Amino acid sequence: MGPNLTDKYWIHGGGVKNVYATIKAGVPAKGMISWQLVFSQKQIQQLASYVLSLQGTSSPGGKAPEGQLYVEPVIAAKDSTRGTKSL
Ligand code: HEM
User: Fold this and answer.
1) Residue 2 C-alpha to ligand 1 middle, in angstroms?
2) Atom 11 (ligand 1): residue with closest C-alpha?
3) Can you give the residue ranges of every domain in the chain?
């Protein structure tokens, strides 16, 4: 029915914020209702986490990827040794 949720390709954007927003709003035009009146904010967070936990668990014969490849942005760690004046 819906797209494969175990790959890195997302029709409505990957990452926890987009997945949360998709679950909350649903995609009524394509057959998924909005879940915001059904589940609490916390439950939608839990559903988003659960959906993301499915990454890489695809079984043979699963649906082909749809949408765009989503790559989690990497936030560069602050290098604590930089900017230190040498004595
Ligand atoms: C709480 C249960 C559900 C969750 C957590 C959930 C989650 C999601 C997510 C995260 C997406 C976006 C996938 C993407 O961006 O590639 C999606 C899409 C979709 N879901 Fe659900 N879903 C649920 C229930 C359902 C149900 C019950 C149906 C249908 C009876 C459904 C039908 C669809 C369809 C057709 C799409 C694709 C929309 C499109 O092509 O734009 N979902 N779902």
Assistant:
1) 5
2) 22
3) 9-57
